[in-house]
Structure formats: C-alpha cells, structure tokens
Amino acid sequence: MSISFESALGIHEKALNFRAQRAEVLANNIANADTPHYQARDLDFASVLAEQNERAQGKQISLNRTSSQHIPADGLELADPALRFRTPFHPSIDQNTVDMQQEQSNYTENAVQFQASFTLLNSKFKGLVSALRGE
C-alpha cells in the first residue's frame, strides 16, 4: 500500500504556496507606496481555490473560435486570474492606490494565516511519519 502525498496533504500545500505568493504581492505594494501611478494589487483566495477545484475534477477551460482566421489560443498562459487591482478607499493626488494601513493589516493577517497553514501542514507530516513508523 503506497502513500499519496497529494491525498494525505490535500489542499494545505497549495494554500501555503498561495500565502507565500500573497505575501510577495503585498510586500511589493508596501515597497511602492510612494511610487506615482502605482496600482495596488492583491490575490483572491476564492478564485485560486475554484481554479484548483476545477483542475482536481479534470475540467479544462477551452476557448472556441468563431472564425477560422482567429488565432488559436492553445498553449497560451493566461494571466493569473487571482491577481487583481485593489480599489482605493481614498484616492491620492499622484494616482497611487496603496493604502499603507490596509496593506500592513493585510500583510499581518496573511502572515498569521501562513503560520496556521504551515503548522497544519507540519502536523500532517508528523502524522505521516508516525504512520510510517507504526506508532
């Protein structure tokens, strides 16, 4: 009997990767807080979860061509559907949409969620090791 890491870990591995990507995006927003015309961005967890669910069920999104002269989109990598621009609460004069208080709050919340995902994943690995040892 073999152990499948994908079935043993579930979505927790992907959630940890998402949290790391979101931390990078939020840190980029904070770093560009004084850059004129910079548009703040964020990742949407719900869209990432829906995409992973579709992949797990084997549903592929395909594009239909209505004319033979259209360029086929096979093999094209589309932009990340989870990465979206944030609507500012208070627009600035220089068109920068970064709100430092919101960014810091989101970064802190994401760090806590990352730690929770990491702790859960760590406990899953400990359980697998215990199962392999027969404890």
The biggest beta sheet is recorded as:
2 strands, antiparallel
Helix content: 40-55%
How confident is the prediction overall: mean pLDDT? 81
Q: SSE order, as H and E?
A: HHEHEH
- Based on helices, strands and strand pairing, what is the structural class? mainly alpha
Tell me the strand percentage band. under 5%
Morphology call: flat
Note the total helix count.
4
Quantity of strands, as a count: 2
Number of domains: 1
Output the strand order for the largest sheet.
1-2
State the separation between the terminal residues, measured CA to CA. Answer: 17 Å
What is the CA-based Rg, rounded? 20 Å
Low-pLDDT regions: none
Domain Flagellar basal body rod protein N-terminal: 11-39
Main location: other
Keywords: Bacterial flagellum, Cell projection, Cilium, Flagellum
Protein name: Flagellar basal body rod protein FlgB
